[in-house]
Structures are given as structure tokens and as C-alpha cells.
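Now for today's protein:

——
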Amino acid sequence: MSRTVIRGGLVITAADEIHADVLIEDGRIAALAASGTPAAEAFTAERTLDATGKYVIPGGVDAHTHMEMPFGGTRASDTFETGTRAAVWGGTTTIVDFAVQSVGSSLREGLDAWHAKAEGTCAIDYGFHMIVSDVNQGTLKEMDLLVEEGVTSFKQFMAYPGVFYSDDGQILRAMQRAAGNGGLVMMHAENGIAIDVLIEQALERGETDPRHHGEVRKALLEAEATHRAIRLAQVAGAPLYVVHVSAQEAVAELARARDEGLPVFGETCPQYLFLSADNLAEPGFEGAKYVCSTPLRPKEHQAALWRGLRTDDLQVVSTDHCPFCFAGQKELGRGDFSRIPNGIPGVENRMDLLHQAVVDGHISRRRWIEIACAAPARMFGLYPKKGTIAPGSDADIVLYDPHAEQVVSAGTHHMNVDYSAYEGRRLTGRVETVLSRGEPVITEREYTGRAGHGVYLPRSTCQYLG
């Protein structure tokens, strides 16, 4: 039996803050006891970690990543190996990535392809959502089978006609199936049909720069699609999770639905909290670095997102990590913003940016852990195995130095991408040591993990539903 004890830190979960020692046995948390008490003094172990002056927090759960994702004639630059290694440098110990069904193929073929990419390469534990691109009778039957084996969430797109797009009838059928099998439909809510008209018109006017990406993907078209998704889910009797919410009008739709008592949930991402349309308008072609969908909004939308996180109208902060290098990938869209691959790197930055939000007074320490660890674990059927520090939970633990200062830079990050969306930003707080199932993967700012340590996680259904 291998045992580790973490002594003297401030243990922070979504529910509690307590100065406690943590005993780990065989990859799981065995016990907690208030520091300095006889119970804590009785903990014995081969390895002792001194957490004096540090936070002891659960490893982050990033429920929205796209490793090796094909998009726009290229693919995301992080592999499961490089992406999960970067994640753990940033204090994230679990990802849920998206397997993709191609039109004309089965869900199973898509899922098998993603298993083949990830197996034996991940530094941390991982699960999959399933992107449903082709709703037909076979697909609907497969949804039942996938839920039974632990793939319990299905993503659909109201955007990207001709690629991932589903019409309202296809969405309704998938939602009806989810209502019966316990699955959760995740929605990319933008009116893609209308947006394509606006893209075509902008290009005809010669408006080709990256900033126009944000201008054509209008906040009202995100809000309209969010409203429509909520009502389709209501008709189907199904829960709904809206991904990467960026606009204050879309937050208002979620808040209204939740006030009506509907099982509707929302996620936002660090880029919408810390970046804005000003970045898309950076001179030259620099704005291409910030092209993602939903797009970055004018700064005034940020207040509504922070408020939504405080009031629980938004429950989760994920990254939508989908990195494309500026050189050779983002540059595919020079002269035509619609050809810029959509995505921003961020899997390494999320926990630190959200700690900065604690420092800045936007959220409390416990809310930081809630939106980054506990809520995503509950939302996607991984709690309390992941997302908390409690007896029986996996020993996915971060020793976090809340006073260390860092400057974010592509020169020092570990993501396989040639720029940082947060280049030069000063942050307070930094990961020092990370355990994944009790194994040290970052040890005092050195990588001590390995590809293949991470295991696949079958998931139960959404734990917010009665």
C-alpha cells in the first residue's frame, strides 16, 4: 500500500475551507483531519508533502476540450499527449473531450476513432462527449447504447451548416431520445443559417479582416438560438447544457429558463471573461489569434457573465481548448476571415485565470473550485470521484501557491501552439505540485508524469437531475 500525507495546507472545496491534513492511500483520499489534531498527527506515510502557506484544492475538471480536432481543412495542434500534459501544468487533472460523428458514419465509428487517439497517450484521466452530426434512426438507437456504457452527453450544433449543423427537427429528435435515456444534450447555440448570410454579405463588401468574424456572429443570433434550444428541450422534456455562452442576451435567456424551473445549464469560458472584441480588432492579422465561436464580445458583456457565475445562472467554466498555430493554420484565413480556423488555446490557463478572478473580487475561493472542479464533475457524472477532496475520492490534488506571481507567455507555456491568447498578462497564483490518482505528475514545478498514466472514465448521467 502506498501512502502520502499532505500537511499544513488550506483545503478548499466547493463546500468548505479548512486547515487540514490529507491522507492518501493507493490513489484515493483515505482521510482528512484538522491540522495539528491528534487524528492528523496519527497519519503516517512514506511520502509527506508540506503544504504550509498553500491551498490544497481538487484537480480541475475541464469538460470542454478538442484535442486533435479536425476543423476547416486542418486539425487542432495539441495531441492528447501534449494537451493533457499542458492541462496538468495548469492544475487540471481531468478532461472531457469530444468524439466526432462524421455525416454518413455511426456514433460508434466516431467514438472508436477518438479512443484510438487518446488511449495510452494521456497524462491525466479523460472522458468523451459525443458530437452528433447525423441524426437518423440508427444514431438515435446508438445514443441509448452509449449512455449505458458511460458516454452520457451529446453535442449538437445550430451553427456550421454543411459541417456539424442539425436542424430543429433533428435537434428535437435527439432531445426526445435524451429525455428517455438520461443523456444530456449540449448545444452550440448560434443561428448558423442566418450567420452564413451575414458572412457572405460581409465578404461581398470587402470586409475580410478578423474583426468581422465577431461582427457577423451577432449576440442576438446567439440569444435567439439559446432561446430556441431551451424551448425545444422543454417540448422534448429534456435537460439542456448550453456551451461557451458569450453574450449577455444569451445569459438572460438561461436565467429566465432557470427562473421557470427548467433543467437548463450554462457554461462560459475564460476567453469571454478576460478577452473581448478589442482583441479581434488588433492591427494587421493579429486578431486571427482570437477567432473562436461563439466569438469574443465587446467588453460590456463581461459583467453579465461574471454576474451569471455568481448567481449560478452559469454553472461551469470550461476552456473550449481548440488550438491552432498562428503560422500556417490561423493564416489560412488571410483575406477571408471565414477561413480562419475557429479556436483558442487555454487548457493550461483556466485555473490560474479563475484564481485571478478570486484575487480581483469577481468570485469567492469556494466558487472558484465549484465552477472549475465540482460543478463540471457533477454535470457530467464524475462526482465525487472527481471534483472534490473527500474520503473515497480519487487523489487528484493540486498544491497551489496563492502568492506566486507569473507572466503568461507562449515562451513558457506547454501547449503545442505558437502563441498565447493571454501573452504578457500578470497573474497571482500558480500551481506547484499536482497529484493524479495519488501519483505526482507535477512536483515542485517539474513534470514528473508520463503519457499513458491517464485512464478513460465512463461517466454516469448528469447529477443535477433528480
User: Anything to note?
Assistant: The longest strand covers residues 397-407. DSSP finds 14 helices and 18 strands in the chain.
